[in-house]
Amino acid sequence: MRTFLLIALCLFIAACRGGPPCVYACSHEIAPTINDSQDVRTLSHTLYPSINHRIKWAIPSSLKPTWHALKDAAVLSPPTVDHSGRLYVTTGKGKGHSHLHVFDTEDGRLLWQSKPMENENDLDEGAVLYSPVIGKNNNVYIADNNQLFCYSPRGNLRWQTAAFPRAGVHQKLTNIILTDNLIGGVSLDGKIIFFDQRTGSIKFPFYQIPQSTVLPVSEPLPPGVWHNFISHKSIPSTWNFHHRLGAPQVRYPATIDPRKQWLYVTAPAEKPRQGIFYALVLDDEKGLSIAYSVLLKEGAGSRPVLSTDQARVYIHSGDELLAFNSDNGKVIWQIGAERVELFDEIDGTIYFYRKSPGAYVGALDGKKGNILWDKDYTELAYRYLKPVRYAQIEARMDGILGVSRQHVWVTLDFGYKLNLPNNPTLYKGASYIAQLDKISGAVHNMYPVPSNVAGAAFDIDGMFVALSATRHSIDRVRHDQLPSNIKKLEVNATANDTAGIVAFTPVSRKSLINQGLLSIAHDLDGVLEAIQEMDEHNIRLHVSNAYLQYYASRLLEVPYLTDTNNTAFINKLFEEAMGGHFGRMPIQQIEDLKRSILKTAHSH
Q1: Helix orientation angle between 509-536 and 2-17, rounded to the nearest 10 degrees
Q2: In terms of DSSP bridges, do strands 182-186 and 191-196 run parallel, antiparallel, or are they unpaired?
Q3: What crossing angle do the helices spanning 2-17 and 545-555 adopt, rounded to 10°?
Q4: Separation of alpha carbons 202 and 161, rounded Å
Q5: Where does residue 385 rank: exposed (0-12), middle (13-18), buried (19+ CB within 10 A)?
Q6: How far apart are CA 342 and CA 158, in angstroms?
Q7: Are 491 and 430 in contact (CB under 8 A)?
Q8: SS3 for 549?
Q9: Confidence class of residue 334 from pLDDT cuts 50, 70 and 90?
Q10: Given phi > 0 = left and psi -120 to 50 = alpha, else beta, which region is 236?
Q11: What tens digit of pLDDT does each residue of 167-203 get?
């Protein structure tokens, strides 16, 4: 037993401490795209944190906050970045305010913004519910409560549609859907409408998803939510939209397969608590028709998620996660999965999270339905918050922001759960973006943010985080109800620093190199400790070639950035890894490697 424990200890030290931060100079970190001819960042997504685009650009692993804009406005949808480094952000402050803002990603400089709202014909506060979508020629499309708008990259209004009710659509769109020639979406009342991208004219009459029985759902609105951060009159409808409440015909955004131009939608069925999954064929001239439909046994389903190869559609319904053949709707596999929120499928791997209780993130094989890893990060809350009487520390997973070549980026909320009426939120807590290893789920970095995260955009210049100010706005209004010991606790942001957009850009090149080298030295310390302890008991350490090659390849990323000849120590380690195992390396040689690493780090 002791032999097994010692070997396990060594593997744990080497694996969990991880290699250096994965840094890239001029290379792009390419994730598979849905449509090779379309930048993946323009795919439709909306308010829900689980809905985001696949990350196409490199994401540096070591970041720092550099600028913060729109501090007095809640941003409830992920921003969007175009090819030219422009960041598009929507807000919803109401009359007298602009609701579309465009920034330079490098320095946060405001480039242009939409005309301030004077009446309902202007871009109104409903824009806060949508992420801008970038189409041909970098034209920008955005929806509000009752219209669609198209702006040029320089901010000129190219067209706006007539009010939706004139076309028979009386509720908001669930999301914005962009094809090669059309722009439109599915409304909460089950109507699908599309407009010509060039002119904004209606392309064909709206399509009505077959009507069904919808059970009314409601949830108390917490006092103070988004207080002064969005238009007061729009808070109730925004809250319902945000939490998919009320009784909409369609609750979840639709997903489009741009290659064959099929639309996938879920909606309630005729029988209560059942749902239907629709596959609709979209013809640019004739409109929509049903390719097939599938009855869901429990619940109205989730947002359909399309696999990278377009072969499967994933839907969560009730306590099951199902994979359908995208061409005919036949079930490929199904597994039990409670409280699951799907993010996306990247190159055959599905990433998902679970909301409270707990803070779970996981990955599974999209072809077979096998769980690859599933972790609860609740214990992290106890590292960042102080225990207090009369309150329970709690962690909640608030969504997955993106998946890159080596990492999953997620948002975590830590706070105190109080036994108060109508209490859907945590108090006096802290919000973090966690950078997780894509293979194992191990935590690589934690980035504090001033408030709840509603989404993020990623670019070669960094990460741009949308802050909703949900928890902080409620905290301020309910401050008098809080126990005295919670009132005294410090929060990680001031009252005027809790909303808007925060930019995280790469740490300096010198700092990245040093950080990577010191991380290697730290790893070798663990290897030395384990080998020395094993030598005391005449135990030889055997590690698989596959693991050593993976470990050594991570170390080799550091000399990729160094402009020195001091790379022999890592090349030597790589050779040893390819040829066998650390157990064959003399301890003195490993110590020499460590000293060489530290010398190189100090020389930078």
Answers
A1: 170
A2: antiparallel
A3: 30
A4: 8
A5: buried
A6: 35
A7: yes
A8: helix
A9: very high
A10: alpha
A11: 899 999 999 999 999 999 999 999 999 999 999 999 9
Query: What distances in angstroms separate CA 505 from CA 1, 60, 405, 458, 560, one per listed residue?
Result: 47, 8, 18, 10, 20
pLDDT confidence tier of residue 7, bands split at 50, 70 and 90: very low
Pair of tokens at residue 351: 């990433």
CA distance 402 to 392: 30
How many angstroms separate the CA atoms of 513 and 20, rounded?
Answer: 9
Residues comprising the chain, all counted = 604
**Rounded to whole angstroms, what are the CA distances from 209 to 68, 154, 190, 191, 396?**
42, 37, 5, 6, 35
Least confident of 69-83, 104-118, 257-271, 586-600: 586-600
Cα 244 to Cα 232: distance, rounded to the nearest angstrom: 19
State the Cα–Cα distance between residues 416 and 392, nearest whole angstrom: 5
Q: Which residues contact 501 (CB under 8 A, 6 or more apart)?
A: 68, 69, 70, 75, 79, 87, 89, 103, 464, 465, 466, 467
Residue bearing the bigger pLDDT, 452 or 6: 452
> Is the Cβ–Cβ distance between 143 and 132 less than 8 Å?
no
Report cis status (omega within 30 of 0) of the bond before 153.
no
For residue 523, the surrounding DSSP H or E stretch is: helix 509-536
Q: What is the pLDDT of residues 534-565, one digit of tens each?
A: 444 444 344 334 434 444 444 444 433 333 44
pLDDT band at 210 (very low <50, low <70, confident <90, very high): confident
* pLDDT recorded at residue 521: 57
Using CA atoms, how far apart are residues 568 and 556, in angstroms rounded to an integer? 10
Q: Across 285-330, where does the E strand assignment appear?
A: 287-296, 305-306, 312-317, 320-325
Judge whether 150 and 160 are in contact, CB under 8 Å: yes
pLDDT tens digits, residue range 24-69?
222 222 222 222 222 222 222 233 332 334 444 445 567 889 999 9
Q: What are phi and psi of 598, to 5 degrees?
A: -65, -40
Of the candidates 426, 356, 345, the residue with the CA atom closest to the CA atom of residue 398: 356
Q: pTM, whole model, 2 decimals?
A: 0.77
Calpha distance 393→378 (Å, rounded): 9
Is 57:459 a contact under the CB 8 Å cutoff?
yes
Question: Closest Cα partner for 505 from 183, 131, 59, 147?
Answer: 59
Q: Which residue has the tokens 């490929």?
A: 332
Structure tokens belonging to residue 292: 């097939």
Q: How many CB atoms lie within 10 A of CB 157?
A: 13
Give the whole-angstrom CA distance, residue 339 versus residue 299. Answer: 12
473, two tokens: 């706005």
Rg (CA), the chain: 25
